């Protein structure tokens, strides 16, 4: 997450498995998809990234906040690498590693002021699309125009997915907290922080209103304490006083096909 504190190790990531089911008479190939905000891939590589991939063998790994330039190289046998680098050094960036070759892929929305930050990769498969998303933060360190930028980015995302003619899997770091239950309770009140502000939350909620399903919350409607980001104080991580910013949102017709969904410890 840009402009916020670094993740306190160990961190977590999301994992979703799509199981074989028939959709419109077609069988859907089983797919294991991992979404992971790596908070700097060069550092993450030395802290268990390659070991995790080797041991868990996901079909697709969607990484956010890679923070590396096109000069950075990493060898991962069996995976095609699809990069979307931001033009600003050490900032933003996304990466998809895939064992299953997509029919096509694209970078960004086709809107320059958003695409220069490298926040979106789209993969097209026969049955559906997979989108790797790293939504902009509105932290004041990123500039006073970021709330407007975030609203416009969210609108561009909604417009973009509305043009896709197959079911969609959105995964990644949305830099927003969808509901009170998705953050550590603060004296029983709605937290007054960046992740709950209308500038960040409204766009996320509009995706749900448009028909996308938050797979984790739909599966575990009352489960608390499942967070993916914690503040800068080590005690917050130890006491699990965090928030959930990373999601899998899927088209309603895909929801019944997934088999398991979990937050996995990585390092």
Summarize the structure.
By secondary structure, the chain is of the alpha+beta class.
How would you portray this structure in words?
This protein has 267 residues and is of the alpha+beta class. The chain has a single domain, classed as Endonuclease/exonuclease/phosphatase (Deoxyribonuclease I, Chain A, 4-Layer Sandwich). Helix content is 22%, strand content 28%. It has 8 helices and 16 strands. It has a 6-stranded mixed sheet. A 6-stranded mixed sheet has the order 8-9-10-11-15-12. It has a two-stranded antiparallel ribbon with strand order 2-3. Helix 4 runs parallel beside helix 5. It starts with 11 loop residues before the first strand and ends with a strand. The N terminus is likely disordered.
Task: Give the tags.
single chain; 267 residues; alpha+beta; Deoxyribonuclease I, Chain A; 6-stranded mixed β-sheet; 8 helices
Sequence-ordered SSE layout with sheet pairings:
Blueprint: E1 12-18, E2 22-23, E3 26-27, E4 31-37, H1 41-45, H2 49-56, E5 60-64, E6 80-84, E7 94-98, E8 104-107, H3 112-115, E9 120-124, E10 129-134, H4 146-162, E11 168-173, H5 198-209, E12 212-214, H6 215-219, E13 229-230, H7 234-238, E14 242-243, E15 246-251, H8 252-255, E16 258-265
Parallel strand pairs: 4-5, 10-11
Antiparallel strand pairs: 1-4, 1-16, 2-3, 5-7, 6-7, 8-9, 9-10, 11-15, 12-15, 13-14
């Amino acid at each position: 997450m840009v402009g916020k504190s670094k993740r306190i190790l160990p961190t977590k990531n999301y994992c979703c498995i799509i199981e074989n089911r028939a959709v419109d008479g077609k069988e859907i190939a089983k797919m294991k998809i991992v979404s992971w905000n790596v908070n700097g891939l060069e550092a993450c590589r030395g802290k268990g990234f390659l070991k995790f991939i080797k041991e868990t063998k996901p079909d697709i790994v969607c990484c956010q906040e890679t923070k590396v330039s096109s000069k950075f190289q990493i060898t991962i046998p069996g995976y095609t690498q699809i990069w979307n680098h931001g033009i600003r050094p050490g900032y933003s960036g996304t990466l998809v590693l895939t064992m299953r070759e997509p029919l096509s892929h694209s970078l960004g929305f086709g809107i320059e002021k958003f695409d220069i930050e490298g926040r979106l990769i789209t993969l097209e498969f026969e049955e559906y699309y997979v989108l790797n998303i790293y939504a902009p933060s509105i932290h004041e360190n990123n500039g006073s125009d970021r709330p407007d930028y975030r609203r416009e980015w969210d609108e561009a995302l909604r417009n973009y997915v509305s043009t896709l003619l197959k079911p969609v899997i959105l995964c990644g770091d949305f830099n927003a907290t969808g509901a009170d239950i998705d953050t550590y309770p603060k004296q029983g009140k709605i937290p007054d922080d960046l992740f709950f502000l209308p500038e960040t939350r409204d766009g996320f909620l509009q995706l749900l209103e448009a028909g996308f399903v938050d797979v984790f919350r739909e599966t575990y409607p009352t489960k608390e304490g499942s967070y993916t980001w914690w503040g800068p104080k080590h005690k917050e991580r130890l006491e699990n006083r965090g928030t959930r910013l990373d999601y899998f949102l899927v088209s309603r017709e895909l929801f019944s096909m997934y088999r398991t969904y979990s937050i996995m410890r990585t390092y």
